[in-house]
Each structure stands twice: as structure tokens, then as C-alpha cells.
What does this fold into?
Amino acid sequence: MCKYNIAAYITAYQDIEALNKCIISLKNQTYPIKEIFIIDNSPEKLNFFTLDEQAVILEHHPNNIGISGGLEIAVKWSIENNYDFLWTFDQDSQPSSDNLEKLLLYYDNLNSDNNLIGVIAPLSIDIQSQQELEGAIWGKYQFVPASIYKNRDLRGFYKKEFYDCDIVITSGSLVNLKIAQNVKLPNRDLFIDSVDWDYCMNFREKGFRVVVVTQAVMYHNFGNYLKDHLLSSKQIPIYNYSALRYFYTCRNHTYIESRLAYKDKSLWLSITFRLKALFKKIIKIILYENDNKIIKIGACIQGTFDGFIGRLGKTW
It folds into this structure.
């Protein structure tokens, strides 16, 4: 008999193939998931004809409520239906078959009344580049990869079975719903990008742990990219995003980091850092993008400005 009652959640948008792969990986888990709740933000409802044997609940939102709106609804739904955990996903993710089992095993071993875990997440690996995406830690004016912040012996760090941090990506995160009832819901006004930063920090501000289990692996597609061969001798992925994605990335990163820095009395450091980040992003767009360079640069500038002044919502 399973100890925990688990629901999974997926944000879907115009890619039935990726969504089906994600759902199959959830169906194949060694620890059973009772229901899969999906928010479909596609203009036309996706056809789930291959999923009729699986308990799937679908809500179609053709007006596109974004990652934040979908996650807010999913957290409320899972709490109302008395689930113990909500396992959250983007459609571009494929967890290993024993992923959930390992997350729960480590949760049982690490959680205690005096050290409560709010979010526990797997090690995320980019499908295309095979690079690992670490959890990050807040460092007064910016988020810093956990390995750099906590341990300069990187080889020693990566041998760890788990580590604590401040933020992890939404996809693959297992949310403790008993704790989530006492934490602010995801901020719907962020729309897309950095929704996970904000939500994780809600848990951290209440004193709850965010943990990454490196023994649980999830593959995730972070987008199309080119390898940097001009600005660096290393092969660094350069992601090629739409103007819309650039806008929300710049806006939400700036908004979240500047507000956290203000609390830490490091606002000017944050402003300097965000302006440097904007300049670097513009240079990369000029060097590497093949289309709509002016529009994308404008999106980055507008997004950064809106982030500083706090203009949120679905505005692009």
C-alpha cells in the first residue's frame, strides 16, 4: 500500500508529442500517481486520444493563463482534493521511471518536525546539451548556482546525494501540500518564466527547505540553442528564444531579484547586475540571433524596465 497520495500537474501548450512523452513517463513511474491534472493553454484544444486509459483531468484555457495561472489552479485543486504532494511539470520533461520513488525516499529520510521540506526536486539535465541545471541560492543581489555558492570543490559538490538550495525549476518539483497551505500561491501576474523562483522563495521565507536529490534524474528540453564559439573558448549553449520569452525573462528576473535585494539592502548592486545582464543579452542577440534582432532587443529593454517599476501581468 502506498504511503502518499500523489497527483501530477502539467502545463501544456501546442505540442501534443512532447506532452504525450511526458505523460508516458509519469504513467511508467514505479511509485503510482493517482491523477494527472493538465492545463492546456493552446489556442485549439490538444487531442488526448492516446490517454483514455489514464486518469487525466484537462482544463482548456485558450486565452493562455501562462505557467503561473496554471500552477496556481493546480495547487488549489490538489489541496481541495486532499492530495499529499503535487508533482509539477512542463510538457518538455521526462523523469526517469524511479524518479518519484527516489524523491519520496529522500523526503522520508530528510524531513523532520524541526526541518520541514516544502519542495523536493530531481537533478535536471538538458536533453540537447546534457548539461546539468543546478538549484540556486540567493546571494544578496542575484541567484548563484548552488555548487559555486556552497562549495568551491565542484567535484566534491557533485558527489553529493542531495543538497539544500533556495530555488529549483518548476518542472519535476514535488510540492508538499500540507506546507503549501501555509505559503503564498504562485504569482499569477508573472505569467511565464521565473514563476518557480518566486514560488520557491515563498517557501524559503517561511523557513521551509527546498532540496535537490541528485540521485533522481529528469531530462528537460530548455529550448533551441547554439554553442558559443565567439565570446568563449568553451562550448556554452546560447538559447535562441522568441521576443515574448525574452521580455518575460528579463522582466521577471529583474522584478524578483530587485525586490529581494531591496529587502537585503542591496538594491544598487541588483540594479547594476541587472543592467549588466541586459547588456550581455543584447550582445548575444546581436551576435547569434538570425531574425527579429531589433524586436528582441526592444523586448529585453522593455522587460527590464517593467521589472524595475513592477509592471506585471500578461503585457506582451
